Amino acid sequence: MVANLHLIVPNIVSRILLVEDDQEIAVMVVEMLSDNGFQAIAAGSATDMDALLRKQSFDLIVLDAMLPGEDGFSICRRLRATSVTPIIMLTALSDDIDRIVGIEIGADDYITKPFNSRELLARIKGLLRRSSYSAEPRSQQSPMQFAGWLIDPALRQLLNPDGVHVSMTTAEFDVLLAFCRNPGRIMTREQLLGLTHAGTAGPVERSIDVHVSRVRQKIEPSVHEPTMIKTVRLGGYMFTPRVKDC
């Protein structure tokens, strides 16, 4: 069991919650994040994590897959049901299927142990940057409409034709936003990856496919016969609706 590690740094912008039962890794990651201007807290189990989440909110969660009691995959699924907080999963499992499962249940990124601390830091900064509207120029933040839906890049919100907010992960929102900014254009998986950095820890084709599948589940009238996000054989995907600025 890892004791909660709480290093407070003045003028902190982002708070990171690390859920990791390995004491050595937890200390290393918390110190690395603290040294780079973040407020970092570590919890060694789902129980410890839940206690912290009841007390405060976090800007990003780094979640180990292999934990005592409730594992990271179950935790990720549970968190994603009620929260859009960006999640990076850590695992010692190198099998591609485990990476894809993590993405399917709502993780935004994935990194395999042993990992380079600088790579983890870059992933965290990148994901926080993508989840913040301030990273884009104002000209790129105008709300857009398609097929009765409204996507707002500044507020990072998606509203369905009835005006109801639809919850999306950071990666899912980025994928849909890339489509909305390139309607009627064939987008290769590599292009989508370059525009969104979605699933950078896994194979390009499979990680993008998973995110596209999750977006389809949220916007398509029929997931089995998608009309808005068309698959282009040997090409990638095409977003078919007419998109207009609001």
TrEMBL record:
<dbReference type="InterPro" id="IPR016032">
    <property type="entry name" value="Sig_transdc_resp-reg_C-effctor"/>
</dbReference>
<dbReference type="GO" id="GO:0000156">
    <property type="term" value="F:phosphorelay response regulator activity"/>
</dbReference>
<keyword id="KW-0963">Cytoplasm</keyword>
<dbReference type="Pfam" id="PF00486">
    <property type="entry name" value="Trans_reg_C"/>
</dbReference>
<keyword id="KW-0010">Activator</keyword>
<dbReference type="Pfam" id="PF00072">
    <property type="entry name" value="Response_reg"/>
</dbReference>
<feature type="domain" description="Response regulatory">
    <location>
        <begin position="15"/>
        <end position="128"/>
    </location>
</feature>
<feature type="domain" description="OmpR/PhoB-type">
    <location>
        <begin position="141"/>
        <end position="241"/>
    </location>
</feature>
<keyword id="KW-0902">Two-component regulatory system</keyword>
<protein>
    <recommendedName>
        <fullName>Regulatory protein VirG</fullName>
    </recommendedName>
</protein>
<keyword id="KW-0597">Phosphoprotein</keyword>
<keyword id="KW-0805">Transcription regulation</keyword>
<dbReference type="InterPro" id="IPR001867">
    <property type="entry name" value="OmpR/PhoB-type_DNA-bd"/>
</dbReference>
<dbReference type="InterPro" id="IPR001789">
    <property type="entry name" value="Sig_transdc_resp-reg_receiver"/>
</dbReference>
<dbReference type="GO" id="GO:0006355">
    <property type="term" value="P:regulation of DNA-templated transcription"/>
</dbReference>
<dbReference type="GO" id="GO:0005829">
    <property type="term" value="C:cytosol"/>
</dbReference>
<dbReference type="GO" id="GO:0032993">
    <property type="term" value="C:protein-DNA complex"/>
</dbReference>
<dbReference type="InterPro" id="IPR036388">
    <property type="entry name" value="WH-like_DNA-bd_sf"/>
</dbReference>
<keyword id="KW-0804">Transcription</keyword>
<feature type="modified residue" description="4-aspartylphosphate">
    <location>
        <position position="64"/>
    </location>
</feature>
<dbReference type="InterPro" id="IPR011006">
    <property type="entry name" value="CheY-like_superfamily"/>
</dbReference>
<keyword id="KW-0238">DNA-binding</keyword>
<dbReference type="GO" id="GO:0000976">
    <property type="term" value="F:transcription cis-regulatory region binding"/>
</dbReference>
<feature type="DNA-binding region" description="OmpR/PhoB-type">
    <location>
        <begin position="141"/>
        <end position="241"/>
    </location>
</feature>
<dbReference type="InterPro" id="IPR039420">
    <property type="entry name" value="WalR-like"/>
</dbReference>
